[in-house]
Amino acid sequence: MASATIAPRKIDKTMLLAPAPGSEDKEMLRQAAMLTRDLHTPNPVMYWGDCFGSAAIGYAALLGAIASGNAWLTAALVLVSILTLYRAALFIHEITHLDHRKLPGFRLAWNIGIGAPLMLPSFLYEGIHAVHHSRAHYGTERDPEYLPLAHMRPWTLPLFTIGAVAMPALMFLRFGILGPLSWVIPPLRRVIVERFSALEVNAAYHRPAPEGDFARRWKVQEAAASVVAVTILATTALGILSLRAFALYCGVVAGVALLNQTRTLVAHLWENDGEQLSLTDQYRDSTNVPAAFPGVLWAPVGLRFHALHHLLPRLPYHSLPEAHRRLSAALPETSAYPQANYGSLGTLLKRLGMASLRRH
């Protein structure tokens, strides 16, 4: 948990001038490391309670929606299910950064309780996200999580977002049909691993085959997600699971994907066009939205501090608000730090849209 024992060192504004593009804001990087040394330990109560409490509410709301005969109540319960399962699902991001020795069993429990039921096993993100954080790869054609959206035509932005509603169909295809077939068809398996086994936005990215312990985890997680997908498809086809229940499940999964894609749309400015960036410029190309509400709904689990996360990727999500407070107090306005802070989701959507329109 956040500690108040370290007081941030206030810097005279004359000590720091705004760094030029391509250069590092060394004082910001130094302060970020120094002021957060006591914030790196994950709090087990926060992780387990927040993640699985959110999941329990989400599943209960989904079951309530399936059982409800009232349209308004059904809609309300579906909304609750989307918001809470979205929060629980986003712990996949924490899993990619966690030192799992400090939180034993969390990844396994998450995959059993959330990853498999939502057809979102953690192998889809583990390893992939590390490439995105690489100084050499961020924002380049080798980054699986980056597209220069600010340089692309304006119509690509709504298409990028709305395409997320196809997520349930894609996951059923991946884990219910093509995945199991690929286990007995080696050429198909290579295609599935390279092209259909990553949560990516860059279609040019080809994923390498997994190795070692990760390959073993991948097999188990994929098998679990496939069991869920095949079971849902089979029971629906046989009439055991009602079409209404199937549609509501798909609606919740699509809603989770749509929320996440909207958040992704404003997680960066997407202004890099393939050049290798300094860490400071990676920070500037990312965003913080410090306002707690409604940010905790559309960017939960610390992701409203996405730029700060790129500075300190190993910092647990619950430590990010305190880290932001300390750095905001310590660094002057001439630092690069305030340059990544924005007021709202709407502000960022408008900024991205205008950037795309100006270039076309």
Automatic annotation (TrEMBL):
Pfam families: FA_desaturase. Residues 71-335 form the Fatty acid desaturase domain. It comes from the Bacteria. Coiled coil: none annotated. Signal peptide: none annotated. Keywords: Membrane, Transmembrane, Transmembrane helix. InterPro entries: FA_desaturase_dom (IPR005804). The chain crosses the membrane at residues 45-66, 72-93, 105-125, 159-185, 223-243. This is Fatty acid desaturase.
